[in-house]
Amino acid sequence: GLGVLCHAMAALGAYRCIECNEEATELYRDYQRGVLRISICKSCQKPVDKYIEYDPVIILINAVLCKAQAYRHILFNTKINIHGKLCVFCLLCEAYLRWLQLQDSSQNTDPDDLIRYAKEWDFYRMFGIASLEQTSFFIGIFITLWWMTPEMLKRKSDFILLLKALLLSTYGKLLLIPAVIWEHDYTPLCLAFIKVFVLISNSQAIRVTLNLNRILPWFAVFFGLILENGVVCLFQKMGWDV
Question: How deeply is 192 buried, as exposed, middle or buried, from its count of CB atoms within 10 A (0-12, 13-18, 19+)?
């Protein structure tokens, strides 16, 4: 169970202190008979990971508040393998929103035209465009970080860890669905807030994963946005509705 997982991760040196980001050999010590004691970090003298005693809902709330400690707990001290599934689901949400907007933008009431928009191809096309934009955004981030701090991304494992962190930090796109379902006059404003929240989460994920200051992650996110918007402009010049 949890003990086996913790021992396996400890053998790999995967633990990090959520306060100072220093490596740790264990999160807690088991004294048998249900007696557990949270390990203390040798560097900052604080609990290595206080969140192992917290309810998942509290951890989620702290993650939504973009607390670095919650991000370190999730990225380094837990074994979560939903990165790919979460990314695909978020892209489906974004594709669905674009597909609805594509229908709303049509003023033609011809039944044939409505049937054409109802075809699955339109939704798949929106999914493909959203995927390409997301990929270009990530590529822009990686290029910036590799250019500014090449020593941070020397190993393949560093790239994989950062990619997983970025994929997890896009969870804010899940809010697109309720924003569309409860549509009202303030929906465009809500969508703008969701976009900003996702960017903040991306920046915090970069900062926590690579242990950087606040400026460089935002610079990487900004360059990723430039590359993403460049892809959007390319699609628009090709005459595609995005």
Answer: exposed
